């Protein structure tokens, strides 16, 4: 289940969240990533996990048949709903770590942007099994997330015994949060997904990565 600290952090920064997409050095990568996401999810019935402000919901909706955008935070959902997204987008409050039992057969793809990095390394196999059991065999899974880049990424503050990396993030109000944020290599991702998925495809950019696969 999502930690209270992580949920509180994202609720607190909801209004400022999209500033991360304003960094000048990331614009070329973002353009490529938006095109890739729209392309790989074209025509799909998509469940989006942790949709946040709806930035990537808007991208997915351009080409998907439909999108159910979900998040655990009311603050994030309110911002996403205020974007004026097209009619093929609906919203629901949902904990991405604790999916309900009524999703089976309703979607052909699941998308999560900047979410996998918050799943503890020791919980990742279990999480993939949950996706498979709740959403069904052969569903398309698409993940995008950050690559770590010195000078652009928030500095890693510590690494725990399981190999998870953590960052300290400070809000505009001066509140300090420790946030789990992993930066897996391509080889680590391929090894992690090998037992749970097939047709694994990776796209590594300087600031971001994309992984798509079919859950076995």
UniProtKB/TrEMBL annotation:
What are the recorded Gene Ontology BP terms?
A: methylation
Please give the Pfam families that the UniProt record associates with this protein: Methyltransf_25
Question: One MF term from GO for this chain?
Answer: methyltransferase activity
The Methyltransferase domain covers 46-135
Record key words, sorted: Methyltransferase, Transferase
Tell me the protein's name: Class I SAM-dependent methyltransferase
Q: Which organism is it from?
A: Janthinobacterium kumbetense
